[in-house]
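[step 3/7] fold_predict: job queued, chain A
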Amino acid sequence: MSSTRASSYCAACGFAQANHFSLWMDSASDVISLRIPMYRVPFYRFFLAIAEGITWALGWIFLTIGRLIGAARFSSDSSGTISDRSRLLWESAIRRNIHLEQLMVFGKPTDIFRVKHSGRTQYFTSLPLSPKPDALRMDDKVLFKEMMRKAGLPVPRSVSASKLSVAKQGLKEFGTVCVKPRTGSNGRHTYPFVHTPEQLKAAFASVKVISPTASVEEHIEGNLCRATCVGGKLIGFLESQYPSIVGDGTSTVRELIEQKNAAKAEGVEEVPFDYSFIGYIQRRGYELDDILPAGESLQLSYRGGAGSGGSNREHGRDGIHPSFIEPIERAATLTGLHIVGFDIIIPDPQQSADSQKWGFIEANSLPWIDLHQHPYSGPSIDLSESVWDLWLERQA
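[step 4/7] structure written:
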């Protein structure tokens, strides 16, 4: 069961491999920006407009020079998109006769687009409805929770920690915690179910590799659900189940995982054996060679979905308990974002919200809308249709 991945593979980054230095710099710049007093003074919008103007000017200069030297161009070929999200948007644009082009730099696609419709030209990154000025604050895990908490919406207790001593205080106060970068996405260097000082020290050190500041928050048990709203309305709701095994009283954890991998369904990946996975089951109290008691269930990873050996199910708006719709849509309105995705921990989204402990853990101003199109089970939901509907409405 030895890993066959390349030596440069980072298990803590998982499926979303990226350069650690670049991640650290991005996170540091985000945290610094959020601490600038301009965010709290009346002239913030003015300074923001100046910054946006400078960014636009630099982009125009880069594109102009790039075109002159043949390094940059816009392409109308939709076959080479950089992500499934971009592919989904482009396919929908073609159906609606919206002319879309992507920026190519040195022959490689980017996530920057130019859209032409009704005599207008617009540039955007990833999604055609640009995030509003407070998008950065919503992508920040600490500030997002502060806003939701003030509005009376459920979120885990949390603390921002740039020093281990502060993280230790959070562990002491919350009991079992999840340690993750304060900003960032895709579950990189995230450590749920941390409950000892030794585990906290190791998790905190890993987070600091890609972020100067950690979010230490109360651990909530349940499935990871991704709720995506467009124009303040909940449209997609994907529930990811974690890979797990059930003990028979005689087999070791290792043997049960091998049996699970051997019997996996089509479209489901094997449970990965790397140090991140092994560390997680150790925090759950087991070693690979321990015998799992009969009838006891053991969650194997904090990464859910078929790609991690688990599964997922699309519920859509109508497939979850109605009691979740109002708080999710209220949260979307509070963010002020045209398109927003929430990561929410819920034990069972088909049962009443009041009957269980659940909470919002993150917001994403550029959500992966394609996740709702090809779930392992449940209906396929094409959110690109709703995105373009809202975009066209705002063009009128």
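[step 5/7] annotate
Residues 243-301 form one domain.
The longest helix spans residues 44-68.
exit 0
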